[in-house]
UniProtKB/TrEMBL annotation:
This is Histidine kinase/HSP90-like ATPase domain-containing protein. One of its GO terms (molecular function) is phosphorelay sensor kinase activity. Keywords: Kinase, Membrane, Transferase, Transmembrane, Transmembrane helix, Two-component regulatory system. GO terms for cellular component: membrane. The keyword Cell membrane does not apply. Signal peptide: none annotated. It holds the Pfam family HATPase_c. InterPro entries: HATPase_C_sf, HATPase_dom, Sensor_HK_TwoCompSys, Sig_transdc_His_kin_sub3_dim/P. Residues 292-382 form the Histidine kinase/HSP90-like ATPase domain. The chain crosses the membrane at residues 12-30, 42-65, 77-110, 116-133, 140-164. SMART domains: HATPase_c (SM00387). CDD domains: HATPase_UhpB-NarQ-NarX-like.
Length: 382
């Protein structure tokens, strides 16, 4: 099942569809003509059905859109359209369930406006509903009806707001956890490299020293007339030579540092984000020599991923790490649909500073489709 279809069939959206269906039934079959200011006869059913379908279309569009996939102005326009349609229906027909449409709208308002803006919209909507109760529907107690509906709106909006806050906190914790896992993987790789170097030193300083002393003593013993022709002494001397050569070979191999492997650390960064999907391509020879270089590359990929999540509405992120002679080149690009000139914020500035601290650099531009393209480089030698 596609992500959009999953959102379409989610339990919360299904509850909204059920409420809309009940309102539509009353609107079409059990409505009353509006009295008072607009008493010009019953509104035609096709007009009511059209307005009702426009509300549903706007509701489905905004609730099935992926998070941050649509511009904020577009989401706000859809919510305002639903509010306008809801009031248009209340001005053309009298049905007790029509104010429930405002509750559905307020659930969405807190998603796309800050608390101050959401409160202003809720206040204006309820003033309008009070006027509809008093002057159009001419109910007996318009203020009581307005306050009752306001309480339901506030309850639904607060519940939605707490759900948004919980989701944002969960995303922040997931991102922090991924950062810690990536850092742990990097530290583990560094610890393995340090342990390998320590063992190489121990073998060279302890075993190598004692084997050298043993070899010298066996050589002196072999020159003694009493043991010159002793085959066991000659065999021990030859074995000591071979063992010393083997240990030197092992020490040389353990000291040969081919760099830190960033594959696991980079792959774990994308785990908390459902979008974009990160495509990681690391060449075999693209390994860093120091922890400073590794951290600079790790933070560069992390910032590229964060920017793609927050700003680009990208579905895919490609990360390529290659070695080009004496330099490592990191290429990060996404398939977002941004536009305009890129402004270097704190994230990009910090990325550039980290790379320059290890002798590298950063170039930022846009792709042909409007996505972000980051190109970083640093020298192979630390």
């Amino acid at each position: 099942m596609s992500p959009r279809l999953q959102r379409l069939c989610s339990p919360l959206n299904f509850a909204g569809y059920l409420a809309w269906a009940a309102i539509s039934y009353e609107l079409i079959f059990h409505r009353s003509p509006v009295p008072g200011l607009l008493a010009t006869g019953a509104a035609p059913v096709p007009l009511l059905v059209l307005l009702d379908l426009v509300f549903l279309a706007a509701f489905v569009t905004i609730t099935t859109c992926p998070d941050r996939a649509a511009p904020l102005w577009w989401e706000r326009a859809l919510v305002l359209l639903q509010l306008v349609v809801a009031f248009a229906l209340m001005l053309n027909a009298r049905a007790g369930s029509l104010p429930v449409l405002l509750i559905l709208c307020m659930i969405q308002v807190v998603h796309v406006w800050r608390p101050g803006g959401a409160l202003a919209i809720m206040t204006a909507a309820n003033i309008g509903m009070y006027l509809v109760y008093r002057d159009v529907w001419q109910t007996g107690a318009p203020l009581v009806g307005t306050l009752m509906n306001l309480s339901f709106q506030a309850f639904a909006a607060l519940t939605s707001w707490f759900a948004i806050t919980a989701q944002r906190t969960r995303d922040q914790l997931a991102a922090a956890n991924a950062d810690l896992l990536a850092t742990r993987s990097l530290l583990a790789e560094t610890a393995r490299d340090g342990e390998r170097l320590r063992l190489a030193r121990e073998l060279h300083d302890v075993a190598g020293h004692k084997l050298t002393a043993l070899k010298l003593n066996l050589s002196a013993l072999a020159r003694d007339r009493r043991s010159r022709d002793d085959g066991q002494v000659l065999l021990c001397a030859r074995l000591a030579d071979e063992l010393l050569a083997d240990i030197r070979g092992v020490v040389a191999q353990m000291r040969s540092n081919d760099g830190l492997d960033l594959g696991d650390a980079l792959a774990v960064l994308a785990t908390p984000f459902p979008r974009p999907r990160m495509h990681l391509d690391i060449a075999d020879g693209a390994r860093v020599r120091s922890i400073a270089q590794a951290e600079a590359l790790l933070r560069a990929v992390q910032e590229g991923l964060t920017n793609a999540v927050r700003h680009s509405q990208a579905q895919n992120l490609w990360v390529v790490l290659r070695r080009d002679r004496d330099a490592l080149r990191l290429d990060i690009r996404d398939d977002g649909r941004g536009g305009g000139e890129l402004q270097a914020g704190n994230g990009l500035t910090g990325m550039r500073e980290r790379l320059e601290a290890v002798g590298g650099g950063l170039a930022v531009d846009r792709t042909d489709t409007g996505g972000v393209h980051l190109r970083a480089w640093l020298p192979v030698a630390a």
